[in-house]
Amino acid sequence: DLGAPYLIAYLRGGEHEAMRVAVISLVDRGMLAMDDRIVRRVDHVTNDMVKHPIESEVLKKFGDPGEAHSIFKDGHLKSLLQTYRDKLERAGLMPDAALRRDRRMRLLLALMALGVAGVIKIVIGVSLGKPVGFLVVMMIAAMVIAAFSSFPRLTARGKATLSDVTNLYSGLRTRVNSLSPGSASAELAMFAAVFGLA
Q: 160-174: per-residue pLDDT in tens?
Protein backbone atom coordinates (compact mmCIF):
# COMPACT_ATOMS: atom_id res chain seq x y z
CA ASP A 1 0.00 0.00 0.00
CA LEU A 2 2.05 2.91 -1.29
CA GLY A 3 -0.58 5.33 -0.05
CA ALA A 4 1.02 5.04 3.39
CA PRO A 5 3.51 7.88 3.97
CA TYR A 6 5.89 5.80 6.10
CA LEU A 7 6.17 3.09 3.47
CA ILE A 8 6.94 5.72 0.82
CA ALA A 9 9.47 7.39 3.11
CA TYR A 10 11.17 4.02 3.70
CA LEU A 11 11.26 3.34 -0.04
CA ARG A 12 12.79 6.75 -0.73
CA GLY A 13 15.30 7.02 2.08
CA GLY A 14 15.25 3.99 4.37
CA GLU A 15 14.47 3.63 8.06
CA HIS A 16 15.87 7.01 9.13
CA GLU A 17 13.65 8.81 6.66
CA ALA A 18 10.56 6.96 7.90
CA MET A 19 11.48 7.97 11.47
CA ARG A 20 11.92 11.63 10.47
CA VAL A 21 8.53 11.71 8.78
CA ALA A 22 6.90 10.14 11.86
CA VAL A 23 8.40 12.79 14.16
CA ILE A 24 7.42 15.68 11.87
CA SER A 25 3.89 14.30 11.44
CA LEU A 26 3.42 13.94 15.21
CA VAL A 27 4.81 17.44 15.84
CA ASP A 28 2.45 18.84 13.21
CA ARG A 29 -0.50 17.07 14.84
CA GLY A 30 0.39 18.50 18.25
CA MET A 31 1.29 15.14 19.79
CA LEU A 32 4.99 15.90 20.10
CA ALA A 33 6.51 19.22 21.08
CA MET A 34 9.90 20.31 19.80
CA ASP A 35 12.06 22.83 21.62
CA ASP A 36 15.22 23.40 19.61
CA ARG A 37 16.59 19.83 19.33
CA ILE A 38 14.68 18.41 22.31
CA VAL A 39 11.49 16.48 21.56
CA ARG A 40 8.90 15.43 24.14
CA ARG A 41 5.46 13.86 24.09
CA VAL A 42 2.70 16.35 24.91
CA ASP A 43 1.13 15.67 28.31
CA HIS A 44 -2.41 14.70 27.25
CA VAL A 45 -1.23 12.36 24.48
CA THR A 46 -1.21 8.58 24.88
CA ASN A 47 0.18 5.88 22.60
CA ASP A 48 -3.27 4.52 21.73
CA MET A 49 -4.25 7.83 20.10
CA VAL A 50 -2.40 6.88 16.90
CA LYS A 51 -3.00 4.08 14.42
CA HIS A 52 0.46 3.40 12.99
CA PRO A 53 2.82 1.26 15.13
CA ILE A 54 5.74 3.53 14.19
CA GLU A 55 3.85 6.55 15.60
CA SER A 56 3.03 4.70 18.81
CA GLU A 57 6.67 3.72 19.25
CA VAL A 58 7.90 7.27 18.58
CA LEU A 59 5.44 8.62 21.17
CA LYS A 60 6.70 6.04 23.65
CA LYS A 61 10.30 6.98 22.85
CA PHE A 62 9.72 10.65 23.63
CA GLY A 63 7.65 10.02 26.76
CA ASP A 64 10.97 11.03 28.30
CA PRO A 65 12.25 14.17 26.51
CA GLY A 66 15.31 13.60 24.36
CA GLU A 67 17.25 14.92 21.40
CA ALA A 68 15.57 14.34 18.07
CA HIS A 69 18.48 12.36 16.60
CA SER A 70 18.37 9.87 19.49
CA ILE A 71 15.54 8.16 17.63
CA PHE A 72 18.03 6.76 15.11
CA LYS A 73 19.66 4.66 17.85
CA ASP A 74 16.42 3.07 19.04
CA GLY A 75 16.83 -0.65 18.37
CA HIS A 76 13.19 -1.51 19.05
CA LEU A 77 11.98 1.09 16.54
CA LYS A 78 14.46 -0.18 13.96
CA SER A 79 13.17 -3.73 14.37
CA LEU A 80 9.61 -2.44 14.02
CA LEU A 81 10.53 -0.77 10.72
CA GLN A 82 11.71 -4.11 9.35
CA THR A 83 8.07 -4.79 8.44
CA TYR A 84 8.27 -1.94 5.89
CA ARG A 85 11.38 -3.42 4.34
CA ASP A 86 9.73 -6.85 4.23
CA LYS A 87 6.73 -5.40 2.37
CA LEU A 88 8.95 -3.60 -0.12
CA GLU A 89 11.04 -6.73 -0.70
CA ARG A 90 7.92 -8.86 -1.26
CA ALA A 91 6.72 -6.27 -3.79
CA GLY A 92 10.06 -6.47 -5.60
CA LEU A 93 10.88 -2.82 -4.88
CA MET A 94 13.92 -3.59 -2.72
CA PRO A 95 16.32 -6.52 -3.15
CA ASP A 96 15.38 -9.59 -1.15
CA ALA A 97 17.82 -12.23 0.12
CA ALA A 98 17.82 -14.15 -3.19
CA LEU A 99 18.55 -11.03 -5.24
CA ARG A 100 21.29 -9.93 -2.84
CA ARG A 101 22.87 -13.38 -3.19
CA ASP A 102 22.68 -13.14 -7.01
CA ARG A 103 24.28 -9.69 -6.89
CA ARG A 104 27.15 -11.00 -4.76
CA MET A 105 27.72 -13.84 -7.21
CA ARG A 106 27.72 -11.47 -10.20
CA LEU A 107 30.14 -9.17 -8.40
CA LEU A 108 32.45 -12.09 -7.63
CA LEU A 109 32.47 -13.12 -11.31
CA ALA A 110 33.06 -9.52 -12.41
CA LEU A 111 35.96 -9.11 -9.96
CA MET A 112 37.50 -12.37 -11.15
CA ALA A 113 37.23 -11.27 -14.79
CA LEU A 114 38.72 -7.87 -14.03
CA GLY A 115 41.47 -9.46 -11.95
CA VAL A 116 42.43 -11.98 -14.64
CA ALA A 117 42.39 -9.33 -17.40
CA GLY A 118 44.40 -6.95 -15.23
CA VAL A 119 47.01 -9.53 -14.29
CA ILE A 120 47.43 -10.57 -17.95
CA LYS A 121 48.00 -6.94 -19.00
CA ILE A 122 50.42 -6.37 -16.11
CA VAL A 123 52.42 -9.52 -17.00
CA ILE A 124 52.59 -8.40 -20.66
CA GLY A 125 53.67 -4.91 -19.60
CA VAL A 126 56.40 -6.26 -17.30
CA SER A 127 57.66 -8.65 -20.00
CA LEU A 128 57.94 -5.72 -22.42
CA GLY A 129 59.69 -3.60 -19.81
CA LYS A 130 56.86 -1.03 -19.69
CA PRO A 131 55.72 0.74 -16.51
CA VAL A 132 52.64 -0.99 -15.06
CA GLY A 133 51.77 1.28 -12.13
CA PHE A 134 48.94 2.92 -14.07
CA LEU A 135 47.52 -0.50 -15.01
CA VAL A 136 47.49 -1.57 -11.35
CA VAL A 137 45.69 1.63 -10.35
CA MET A 138 43.14 1.19 -13.16
CA MET A 139 42.49 -2.43 -12.20
CA ILE A 140 41.90 -1.52 -8.55
CA ALA A 141 39.67 1.42 -9.55
CA ALA A 142 37.59 -0.83 -11.84
CA MET A 143 37.11 -3.34 -9.03
CA VAL A 144 36.06 -0.63 -6.57
CA ILE A 145 33.58 0.84 -9.08
CA ALA A 146 32.16 -2.64 -9.76
CA ALA A 147 31.72 -3.25 -6.02
CA PHE A 148 29.97 0.08 -5.40
CA SER A 149 27.64 -0.24 -8.38
CA SER A 150 26.62 -3.83 -7.65
CA PHE A 151 24.37 -3.15 -4.67
CA PRO A 152 21.86 -0.38 -5.39
CA ARG A 153 19.39 0.11 -2.52
CA LEU A 154 16.36 -0.21 -4.79
CA THR A 155 15.58 -2.61 -7.60
CA ALA A 156 14.82 -1.25 -11.08
CA ARG A 157 11.14 -1.74 -10.27
CA GLY A 158 11.62 0.16 -7.01
CA LYS A 159 13.23 3.11 -8.79
CA ALA A 160 10.43 3.18 -11.36
CA THR A 161 7.79 3.01 -8.63
CA LEU A 162 9.42 5.84 -6.67
CA SER A 163 9.49 7.93 -9.84
CA ASP A 164 5.79 7.17 -10.42
CA VAL A 165 4.91 8.13 -6.84
CA THR A 166 6.87 11.38 -7.15
CA ASN A 167 4.99 12.22 -10.35
CA LEU A 168 1.67 11.24 -8.79
CA TYR A 169 2.16 13.66 -5.89
CA SER A 170 3.87 16.41 -7.88
CA GLY A 171 0.80 18.61 -7.35
CA LEU A 172 1.70 18.79 -3.66
CA ARG A 173 4.81 20.79 -4.59
CA THR A 174 2.66 23.66 -5.81
CA ARG A 175 0.52 23.59 -2.67
CA VAL A 176 3.23 23.08 -0.05
CA ASN A 177 3.44 26.78 0.84
CA SER A 178 -0.28 26.81 1.60
CA LEU A 179 0.13 24.00 4.15
CA SER A 180 0.50 25.76 7.46
CA PRO A 181 2.50 24.11 10.27
CA GLY A 182 0.26 22.75 12.99
CA SER A 183 -2.65 22.16 10.63
CA ALA A 184 -2.43 18.40 11.25
CA SER A 185 -2.69 17.92 7.52
CA ALA A 186 -2.21 14.44 6.10
CA GLU A 187 -0.84 16.19 3.01
CA LEU A 188 2.14 17.50 4.99
CA ALA A 189 3.12 13.99 6.06
CA MET A 190 2.73 12.75 2.50
CA PHE A 191 4.78 15.67 1.14
CA ALA A 192 7.59 14.92 3.60
CA ALA A 193 7.43 11.21 2.72
CA VAL A 194 7.59 11.75 -1.04
CA PHE A 195 9.93 14.74 -1.31
CA GLY A 196 11.84 14.77 1.99
CA LEU A 197 11.92 17.17 4.91
CA ALA A 198 14.26 19.66 3.28
A: 999 999 998 888 777
Assess contact for 118 and 135: CB atoms under 8 A: yes
pLDDT tens digits along 176-194: 666 666 565 677 888 889 9
Q: Detail the DSSP E strand segments found in the chain.
A: 32-35, 38-41, 66-67
Please, are residues 15 and 81 in contact by the beta-carbon 8 Å criterion?
A: yes
First CA to last CA across the chain, in angstroms?
Answer: 25
pTM for this entry: 0.79
32 - beta bridge partners? 41
Q: Which of 13, 52, 17 is nearest to 154 (CA)?
A: 13
The residue type of 12 is R
Which runs of consecutive H residues, i.e. helices, occur in 29-74? 53-61
Q: What is the CA angle 71-77-81, rounded to 5?
A: 120
Q: Which residue type sits at 125?
A: G
Q: What is the CB-side half-sphere exposure of residue 193 using CA atoms within 13 A?
A: 22
Q: How far is CA 112 from CA 36, 93, 134, in A?
A: 52, 29, 19
